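Ticket opened by: R.M.
Priority: normal
Category: complex prediction / small molecule

The reporter submitted a protein together with magnesium ion and asked that the result be attached to this ticket for the collaborator who will pick it up next week. Submitted input follows.
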Amino acid sequence: MAHQLIELKDISKSFQREQTIIAALSPVNLAVRREEFVAFVGPSGCGKSTILNMVAGLLPPTTGQLSYDGAPVRDLNRRVGYMTQKDTLLPWRNVADNIGAPLELACHKTGKTGRMDKIRQMVELVGLKGFEKHFPGELSGGMRRRVALARMLIYDPETLLMDEPFGALDAQLKLVMHDEIQRIVSLGHKTVLFVTHDLSEAIALADRVVVFSSRPGQIKIVRDIDLPRPRDVFRIRFSPRFTELHEELWDELKDEVKKGTDT
Ligand SMILES: Nc1ncnc2c1ncn2[C@@H]1O[C@H](COP(=O)(O)OP(=O)(O)O)[C@@H](O)[C@H]1O
Ligand SMILES: [Mg+2]
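Result attached by the on-call engineer:
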């Protein structure tokens, strides 16, 4: 059988902190198809970000095999773009220079003109026209997330790793971003791993939702989201099928969230 794009086989992860070993992730098995949108939900501390870090090649698994496009992930995975949970914009650089930063790294041979063109395209794509010269400190939360999004997309990675990308945005702005991300993903044929604590967001966007149990994280259930595409993210919450899926998954998630708050 042909391999899938991302394969986690019996992947576990523990961290050592001084004398104690923290088991972050119990063995996890998951395969993600090319162009699939998979959302992770689960209580905080169950290892969601750790999985993204491993797929990005920033962290080795403690046990198991992690492969990307049939090859083991050994060091930095250059075929993924990563929008981390923390805001990592460079405060001393303006919007355009933040977005262009990945292209300045040695591995990219884009010249200055090519870089300016790319930046212009990205600024348009994420709706930041007119703000190129602003500094991160002058932007709203939503705009900062747009800059981070553009910076991830600028080198056109085939896979997007997004860790609670819209967690800090208000409910309305989130929907606007969902609409945009859906468009970007389908136009660009991207594969996505998307971490969120917002179950509605996971259902609205994903082809499959993975619910994790509390730490050490384990996959509790994987659910296909059979809502037709393209989806109207502004109205999908009113569909009866959405409500059914939400109820079913919330029943799985709520016990874990309760346990999660004990730690
Ligand atoms: N670099 C690290 N060193 C030590 N412990 C870590 C490290 N990264 C994560 N952990 C621990 O591993 C567990 C899972 O973390 P994380 O993947 O960030 O969870 P989530 O993203 O699901 O909230 C947590 O208990 C966290 O404290
Ligand atoms: Mg996290």
